[in-house]
Amino acid sequence: MMAIRKFTKSDLEACTELLITVYNREPWNEKWTKMTAGNHLTELIHRMRSFGFVFVDKTTIVGVLFGVERTFWSGEEVYVDEFFIHPSYQQKGIGKEMMRHLEVYCKENDLEDITLLTDKMVPAHVFYQKLGFKMSNKTVFMYKSC
C-alpha cells in the first residue's frame, strides 16, 4: 500500500539515505555523505513552523517533502526546502500527488502561497511548471564560489 503521511523523527535515517540516493547521481552529481545529509535534514526539521511529509510504499520511504510555514508581507506561505523522490519512483505521479497533498495542507492551514527554488538545468523545473508554478521575472538565483 502506498500512502503519504506526516514525517516523524524516526524517519530521519531513511530520509537521509534517500537524499543521498537522489542527489549523488545524475543530473545533480552532488557529494552528500550520511553526516552532511543527516545534519542538513536535522537543521530543516528543527526550525520554527517546519513540517514534512513522506510518501511510503509498504514500509519504504520513497518520497520526501520538507517545508516551513512563514510570514510574508502578503500573508502566510509555505517555502519548500527539500522535495525528492527515489529515482525508480520518479515519473509515476508520486511527485504530483505529494504536491497536491501540500496544497490541501495549505488550504487547511490558511496558507496562501507555495514558494520554492529549483535549478533550470534539471528536469524538476519543468515538473513544477506543469503543476502551475510560474517563474519569477524579478528573482534570480545567483552564486559565487569563494
TrEMBL record:
Coiled coil: none annotated. It comes from the Bacteria. Residues 2-146 form the N-acetyltransferase domain. This is GNAT family N-acetyltransferase. It comes from Carnobacterium inhibens.
